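User: We ran a pulldown and think these components assemble together. Before we commit to crystallization trials, I'd like a predicted model of the whole complex to look at. Sequences follow.
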Amino acid sequence: MTSVKDNQTPSLDEISQTLAKMVADKMDINVATIKPESTLEELGLDSLDTFDLIFNAEDHFHIKVPNDQVNISTLQDVSTLVQRLIVEQQ
Amino acid sequence: MMDGSSQQRVVITGLSVVSPLGNTIVDLTRNVFAGVSGIKRLDTSFVDQLDCKIAAQAQFNPADHFSKYAYSILDRTSQMAVHTSIEAIKHANLEISDTLKQRMGIYLGTGMGGAHSIEEGYVRLYKEGLNRLKPFTVLMSMNNAAASAVALEHQITGPNQTFCTACSSSAVAIGEASRLIRHGYADVMLAGGAESLLTFGTIKAWEALRTLAEEDATDASRSSKPFSADRTGLVLGEGSAMLVLETYEHASARGATIYAEIIGYGSANDSNHITQPTANGQATTIYAALADAGLAAESIQYINAHGTATKLNDATETEAIKNVFGAHAYKLSVSSTKSMHGHLMGAAGALEAVISILALQNNKLPPTINLENPDPECDLDYVPNVAKKVPQLDYVMSNSFAFGGTGASLILKKIAK
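Assistant: Here's a predicted model for the assembly, 507 residues in total across the polymer chains.
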């Protein structure tokens, strides 16, 4: 996973792939089984695991996810949120 | 049976360890009676920055026992505790039914809880200059994390408490768990200790206390020298020891192998000084255990001593034993197995309780190794250097004392097969 540099907003697809890898690594599951529409719950993440995923995403994408925006259900939701915050916080 | 007035016999039916002398009871038994040392140069990245470069590490790799997901949210202390709890239940051949879950709990001792996780957090903040911590930091470092991880693992819903009395933590945990069972508040308890504090910051803090052993000039493994005239201090260790305690009734009904009975537990505080023990304070703890057992002092045949190898403890403990046992002090045997496994701090009492049970089982006394130059102030039989076979061992005592003052003494009895 290469780090995100300034002025290079990654595509939703790229963000999604990076997040899928993070989930696979954390949950010890095959990345191929992870689909964008998978809910985090289906993937085995509880609320704390979700915070941990957001924490890692914040580090990787150099963003800060506000506390009132962590209500997310699917991996797609996380990707969309991350992309929006990259643009807003660049 | 919940009113606290019943008197149940409390027996030990399962044992497990992660220790500098091995991670199975078979390995521990072989090593502790062969006088093997688990102390050596610390295998870690920061060893060159230490004044005291020796420790008693446990060879424990969490990936051998857990999924990455499971172990990555547990401090090393909790990983060890969960592992020993699983193995102790296996050793006890105990099936935890839904009914039993409600009558089974965990009492655990630890001195510093999630020391690695706390330190990792500080490194991020103060060394790496980052300004936020990982989401699991609190949950991994809190002192009750290990016991709670054990309760979650086995889905047991009885009492879950963590005892934090420094070096006597896990002896207290075992003693208090035995009382819980004795008085009918639980049928089965996991009881023990876990400690993993061999971090840069923790070792530096211990160095500052000037209480750590100097490395032996010729052989690092011989640096812990309890009761010896040339003893220089304690050697820090890590590990976990877990026991399955249950009522005699419950154990008998399921046909369990009984390794020993806990017949006495005493605890008292040495309110002399934050670190300096007194013979009177230690004797009070020992008397309390004898009174609890209703046992004549002359019945005790072997004492697994606290025996830290500090100047003060070993002389004081010897005096305390003489105060309590009088002439019998010279007939019983005392040994400090810390000469081999180092000082496991919050897990020390539990490991030494396990070793005391192995002594009962084998009619054999583990030695105090590195005892070549007896200290005139320490003039008891410390089972110097080699284990001693005895015809019949029935009553043993395991003593733990602590910085802060909390003493704990356990009396274990062999059950006739």
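The radius of gyration of chain B is 20 Å. That may be worth checking against your pulldown data before setting up trials.

User: Thanks, that helps.
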